[in-house]
Specification:
The protein is mostly beta strands and 131 residues long. Helices cover 12% and strands 36% of the residues. Strands 1, 2, 3, 4, 5 and 6 form a six-stranded antiparallel sheet that branches. The chain is globular. The relative contact order is 0.21.
Length: 131
C-alpha cells in the first residue's frame, strides 16, 4: 500500500514544491489511533479481507527526504494498493481512493496526534458555536 501526495498551494521556493509529488510506503499499522501502551505496532504485511467485509487499520506511512512540514495544503492524497495478477505475472498498483488532505485546517501543535475531519464545511458549521 502506498500514499501518494501531490499539489499544495506553495510557490516555487516552498519546501513542499521541492518535495512533492511524493510516494510514501506503508511500514506498519496500529489497531487504533490511540494504541494501548502495551500494544506494539505491527509491521506491514499482507492481510486478507473477506468479500463484502471491511477491516479497520490505522496505517503508518514512511516519508523519506527531502523533508517538509506540509504547510501549504490542501494536497491531493491517493491510496494505492498492489492488486494480485489479473493475467500471468502482471501485478499492478491501483488507486483505491483519492481525497483532499486539508493541512490548511490544522492549527496549534502540529506534532500532537489529534484526529480531525478534513471536511471544511464542518468547521464552517461550528464557527457559530465555538467562535
Amino acid at each position: 500500500m502506498t500514499l501518494r501526495l501531490s499539489g499544495g498551494a506553495g510557490g516555487e521556493n516552498s519546501a513542499d514544491h521541492k518535495a512533492l509529488p511524493k510516494r510514501m510506503f506503508w511500514i506498519a499499522f496500529h489497531g487504533s489511533v490511540y494504541p494501548e501502551s502495551d500494544k506494539h505496532r505491527q509491521y506491514a504485511m499482507p492481510f486478507a479481507v473477506e468479500g463484502r467485509n471491511s477491516v479497520e487499520r490505522v496505517i503508518e506511512f514512511q516519508w523519506a527526504t527531502p523533508e517538509t512540514q506540509l504547510r501549504d495544503g490542501p494536497y491531493s492524497a491517493s491510496v494505492e494498493v498492489l492488486v494480485l495478477p489479473q493475467s500471468w505475472g502482471r501485478r499492478r498498483w491501483r488507486t483505491t481512493c483519492t481525497f483532499p488532505l486539508r493541512t490548511d485546517l490544522w492549527s496549534g501543535n502540529r506534532n500532537a496526534l489529534i484526529p480531525r475531519t478534513n471536511d471544511p464545511e464542518f468547521y464552517e458549521a461550528i464557527k457559530d458555536v465555538t467562535g
